[in-house]
Design a protein that fits this description.
two-stranded parallel ribbon, 282 residues, globular, 6-stranded parallel β-sheet, single chain, 10 helices
Length: 282
């Protein structure tokens, strides 16, 4: 019975169409309503860049890392990023040559870079031409690897003389030393490094460390947390008061060159002080 009803309904629909006026067939079809176009979804907003730290208003400290880039630099960079901390890396040309990618990562992360010679000789024991060669060779290698030139010099072991200052002036670069150490190269002990840095921490201080010392890199999260709790902002040397007004050949921090106690913070020059070879590429 269901099929019979469907036939009757179909026939009555056809008769209705045939009896409709002809105008109904010839009338133009109504244009379809425009469909609303979907608006493109907004791009996810990127996080605003943090404002530069004003060390005239807040408590700052500069952590500096010599002899790099060390083979643990990538881990150190990750920790610094997590804590929104900036640092200064005094690079050796021989390590930049073998670890160019790490040097580029340092620059790309927005840290300061300085020139720490090519092969770490004592500038007080080589000629002025030797000093010039050590610095210029490193300048060229760093620029090739990172796209930027170092803007400051830190002489190996913190040793300098009139020849060093003359070359720095000639190359239009100030000299950056330190006024607090970690003795990480000597102890290679996390607790000792942690205690030494906190003991030497002071406002606008410049702390000497080494990114090739594994214990320094390992203790860094704990150390940064402790410094933060004391109210410190970890900044690059260029953010410290008075640095931007330094002239070529000037020495920073003031009085550091005359502080004989600072030599104890730097490796003695004994090859056993160093944990890696320049041929140990990344």
């Amino acid at each position: 019975m269901k099929s019979s009803i469907r036939i009757i309904l179909t026939g009555s629909c056809a008769l209705g169409l045939l009896s409709a006026p002809a105008a109904a067939w010839s009338a133009p079809m109504a244009a379809p309503k425009p469909t609303a176009t979907a608006k493109p979804s907004p791009k996810p907003s990127s996080k605003p860049k943090p404002k530069p730290v004003d060390c005239a208003k807040v408590k700052c400290i500069a952590l500096t890392f010599d002899d790099g880039p060390g083979k643990y630099a990538d881990k150190l960079l990750a920790t610094l990023k997590k804590h929104n901390a900036k640092a200064t890396f005094f690079l050796e040309g021989q390590y930049v040559k073998s670890r160019a990618k790490l040097a580029k990562q340092i620059v790309d992360a927005g840290h300061d870079i300085g020139n720490h010679s090519y092969a770490h000789p004592k500038f007080t024991e080589i000629s002025i031409d030797g000093i010039r060669s050590e610095i210029q060779k490193t300048q060229d290698i760093v620029k090739q690897a990172t796209g930027k030139y170092p803007t400051t010099i830190r002489p190996p072991y913190g040793l300098l003389d009139d020849d060093t200052k003359a070359v720095a002036t000639e190359m239009k670069m100030p000299i950056v030393l330190w006024n607090g150490g970690s003795r990480d190269w000597a102890t290679k002990n996390e607790k000792a490094i942690y205690d030494e840095v906190l003991k030497n921490a002071k406002r606008d201080g410049v702390i000497l460390m080494h990114d090739w010392v594994l214990q320094t890199v390992t203790v860094m999260p704990k150390l940064l947390t402790a410094l933060e709790k004391q109210g410190y902002h970890m900044v690059a040397v260029s953010s410290l008061p008075g640095v931007k007004s330094l002239k070529p050949g000037d020495i920073y921090p003031a009085g550091a060159a005359e502080d004989k106690d600072l030599s104890a913070d730097s490796p003695t020059g004994d090859p056993d002080d160093y944990a890696e070879s320049s041929n140990d590429g990344n």
